[in-house]
Write a structure and sequence with these properties.
By secondary structure, the protein is mainly alpha-helical. It has one domain (2-224). It is 81% helix and 0% strand.
Amino acid sequence: MQTRSLVITGGMSLIVGALAFVGVFSYLAANLSYPQILDGSAAEVLPRLRAGGDAMRAAWAIYSVLPLLLVIGAVGVHAAVPSRPGAMTLAVALTTIGALAMCLGLMRWPSIHWELARAYETAGPDAQHSIAATFIGLNLYLGNYIGEFLGEVCLGGFFFVSGLAMRGESRYPGWVGIVGVVFAVLFVIGALRNFVPSVQGVADVNNYLLPLWMILLGWAVIWYSRGRGQG
């Protein structure tokens, strides 16, 4: 049935997205010291980015579109919580904004940053200084403010609203909604790390909790809504 198909597609998108996130994140951590490298200077980061070659660029390209799976996932969760259409419409809207913000932030790596790295190789001292200033500005605007802050706050909003909605849906056990709300609060707190450095530890933990919650949420909507779809 149509609704059941949406639920399964959305749930699987969350699970696949989480596993893909872990895979790409692990690759970047091993080959680029990600995410610690984000605090590095242009002189440190750009040569390492370029040295990664086509594989590194492809990894960033894949990473940059993975947030779109969250939108499909949110549509599936919407279909899985039919008693809260208003709340879940808001959740889908928040996810869409957050996913696009994350895409914009991450896409700077295989595109603008890649070209900056190419130019940095042969640039003189003055040109390298200009490239470094551009690199820092892009990281601040596209990375810290658009991708991390806006993207993560909106995604945290999705987790929060959907958690509350699932608490009010009798088919789901209470712990599912509670876990969703608690993680949403942690996720939003972690999103403030660029303004409140003391919460960086929360953000680091969220890197591990995010795929776990995506898998759990995807499984929950598929399992607990089984046999209840309507055409």
